[in-house]
Amino acid sequence: LFIGTAVKLGSELARKPVALALVAVCFAAVGVGRISMYFVLPVMFAVSLFAARRNWL
Amino acid sequence: VILLELALWFAMLSLIAFGGMPAVMPEMQRVVVDVNGWATPAEFIQLFAVGQAAPGPNVLIVSLIGWKVAGLAGALVALFAVCGPTAVLAWWISGLWERFKDAPWRHAIGRAIAPLVVGLILASGFVLASPAGPDWRTWLIAGAAAAAFLATRVNPLWILAAGGAAGTFML
């Protein structure tokens, strides 16, 4: 159900390659790599904010 | 000491819960199973399933973990630790959020959070579908449940029940 929810939410981002890349990196780091979210979240948020400010998202 | 540990871990967890409990499930699993050993991977999945199937918010899993670790006191401490700090923070930030509703940075933050939440929820699905390492049977059940959720308008509880029944036979 989580996977379905993520796909539903992510369909809004489907035409934004940078957003898809951020989704993929976040998934790989936290889900597959099991890296702590306390490390991943601040780094990814900074990158994502940079992308948003450039209108890439 | 265990109650203090529960309170600290869950309070910290609540502060990074962008996207709600589903988004922090991988971190919760890491803290509960890998770091503290409060539950085995299989027990964590069972607690999660009970929390999801029971009426009420997703946050119920926290009180179940607290209960397992330290009984009723653990359940109450864990639940308060997750809800208390974020309630205060949300109350404080909602004022700021409304005050700066036309600020460009507010819109940028909204756009920036969206892909992270999607990635984290996807990661939660993956972690929960691989409780004791990669297993094609759990991935098959998860994939089928996701497909049913996306392709039909069936109540998710039925999908949950069907997944549980499939798991009983296959695992």
Description:
The complex is a heterodimer of chains A (57) and B (171). Helices cover 74% and strands 0% of the residues of chain A. With 57 residues, chain A is mainly α. The mean pLDDT of chain A is 90. Chain B is built from 7 helices and no strands. Chain B starts with a helix and ends with a helix.
* Whole-angstrom Rg of chain A: 12 Å
- The mean pLDDT of chain A is 90
Low-confidence stretches of chain A: none
Rg measurement of chain B, Å: 18 Å
The helix content of chain B, as a percent range, equals: over 70%
Biggest sheet of chain B: strands, sense, closure? none
Structural class of chain A: mainly alpha
Percentage of β-strand residues of chain A: under 5%
Chart the SSEs and their pairings.
The complex is a heterodimer of chains A (57) and B (171).
Chain A: H1 2-10, H2 17-32, H3 37-53
Chain B: H1 2-15, H2 21-35, H3 41-53, H4 60-99, H5 104-129, H6 136-151, H7 156-170
Helix pairs in contact in B: 1-2, 1-4, 2-5, 3-4, 6-7
